[in-house]
Amino acid sequence: MQEWARELGFSQIGVAGVDLSAAEPGLAAWLAQGFHGDMHYMASHGLKRARPAELVPGTVSVITARMDYLPRHTPERAPDGWQALELGRLARPAEGIVSIYARGRDYHKVLRARLQKLSDRIAAEVGPFGHRVFTDSAPVLEAELASRSGQGWRGRHTLVLNREAGSMFFLGEIYVDMALPESAPVTPHCGSCTACIDICPTQAIIAPHRLDARRCISYLTIEHAGPIPQELRPLMGNRIYGCDDCQLICPWNKFAQVSRLPDFDERNGLAGQQLVHLFAWDEATFLRMTEGGPIRRIGHERWLRNVAVALGNALRAATQGSAEGMGDVQALRAALHSRAGDESALVRDHVAWALAQGVQGA
């Protein structure tokens, strides 16, 4: 099965059992504390996430898969490494940062199609069997299943880490109705390192292995639909879709593997772009530039909200100093004024806040 999986672009396949009862107390406590924020579907599904056989009756084993997504043209031998290259974007406030995973094709589509092909290949070998494929698309404890099946261990940032691949990979599962030998889990290798906790811009990792999603920039820019809390806006910097900081700083990601698929190559217009340019996208342009990608799911309104916050942070930085890459104050203000009367109250609110940052920083 490993060979079939590799032919389809997967890096590793594992098998986990369906008894996840040991994970239920932690899941219940996390939900009870409200750390899931506006992700109400997580609470509505309750403990079904930890009970695969309830989600898909008849399930007795779970095949787990991971797929590397670092873009193929990533400069592996950049002077200070690809991680430093990405972290360097934070020093250019007028440039918008889109999380690496979101610069290519929507991973949901890529993994789901290839997991189904893997299922078809298995069926051709053993005969028809009951199964269902998932890729971050249902109440599934992906990281728990991945760690139980030897894909890696849970890092302090809650993501799965692999000694040969870091954490720059997607996860997927096939729930099956046939018993398969379970893969052996691996031991943790974070040691005393707390780099991911220390670097988090909003201190969303409130303790090792505990994330308050309500403070996470990935949650705020993607999952959260309403106004972004004002106290968190200055901490978001120029991150407009997702945040990779906890992964970029992780020592294990020096081993991150470049994807073998063209699907995750960076699309033109999503990396290294100036905020004023991105803020000028009308809805038609937004839909065209994000077609087939994960960014489209947030819609044009939230895109403008996110970019407005980044413009405000860039404007504050520009009025406080003259460092290279800060951006032109007048250009930043002009971009914001262009949408000061936007039909969306959400956009108008964030634009007004952003313009005020220039006054405060003057």
Architecture overview:
The termini are far apart. This protein has 362 residues and is α+β, with helices and mostly antiparallel strands. It is 37% helix and 11% strand. The mean pLDDT is 91. Helix 14 packs antiparallel against helix 15 (345-361). The protein has one domain (2-273).
TL;DR?
By secondary structure, the protein is of the alpha+beta class.
**Biggest sheet descriptor:** 4 strands, antiparallel
Strand order of the largest sheet: 1-2-7-4
Helix content: 25-40%
Radius of gyration: 21 Å
What is the number of helical segments per DSSP (H or I, 4+ residues)? Answer: 15
Distance between the termini: 62 Å
The portion of residues forming beta strands comes to 5-15%
Got a strand count?
10
Mean pLDDT equals 91
**Backbone structural class:** alpha+beta
Q: N-to-C SSE series?
A: HEHHHEHEHEHEEEHEEHEHHHHHH
Q: What does the overall shape look like?
A: globular
Low-confidence regions: none
Number of domains: 1
Write the layout of secondary structure elements.
Blueprint: H1 2-7, E1 12-16, H2 24-32, H3 40-45, H4 52-55, E2 61-68, H5 81-87, E3 97-98, H6 107-126, E4 131-134, H7 142-148, E5 153-154, E6 160-161, E7 169-176, H8 195-199, E8 205-207, E9 210-211, H9 217-223, E10 239-241, H10 245-248, H11 275-279, H12 283-289, H13 299-320, H14 329-337, H15 345-361
Parallel strand pairs: 3-10
Antiparallel strand pairs: 1-2, 2-7, 4-7, 5-6, 8-9
